[in-house]
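> Could you send the Cytochrome c oxidase subunit 2 prediction when you get a chance?

Sure thing. Input:
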Amino acid sequence: MTTWLNMSLQDGASPIMEQLIFFHDHTLMIMLMIITTVMYMMTTLLWNKHTSRFMLEGQLIETTWTITPAIILVFIAMPSLRLLYLMDEIHNPAMTLKAVGHQWYWSYEYSDFTKLEFDSYMIPQEENQASTFRLLDTDNRIVLPMNSPIRLVVTAADVLHSWTIPSLGVKTDATPGRLNQVSFSINHPGILYGQCSEICGANHSFMPITIESVSANQFINWVSSLSESSDDWKQVLVS
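Output:
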């Protein structure tokens, strides 16, 4: 997650985010070379005393400063298009998670498991503990297995929302009446934080997203424990 005075991007928690960071650094280096060259040329023009009353055109330099920007744009566009298609690809997902945006909380459904769904609200400030982060922690975290391709399906029940996890490189609009999907894979165990990044009303700032990445065995145990608890709850209701 982002910390105080952190001027760089968050550490990538997925292969896509790592590639996005590489592309960001690649583009910054190209920009640095352009700025350095332009500043050098401007400084040289300001300080030299050479003049020419008869130089009316320079076809060579005009050709050079027309072709060079086009070549630079190709060096930026090629990795950008590659990343764009990689982010849009769905690689045989191991599981599907559905996120539904509400004013102002998220609902989640594990489509591969029966009756595994819950609402996720922000923990109020007065209930915050030392182990939680203000405005970022939720009462029910999303639990996902690491190193597994996951398909996320996003929609909304009322107004526009946006499901965003910066460290995963995922930002998907939640639109009422429409399903948007994206895929990602988490590299390591840990807790990832995100927020709604679409202005959706008065409490837009208070609908965070919290993902807990665990191993595959821990995820299976978590799903089994939820199934057993739901069966016990049904037996209590019947009796």
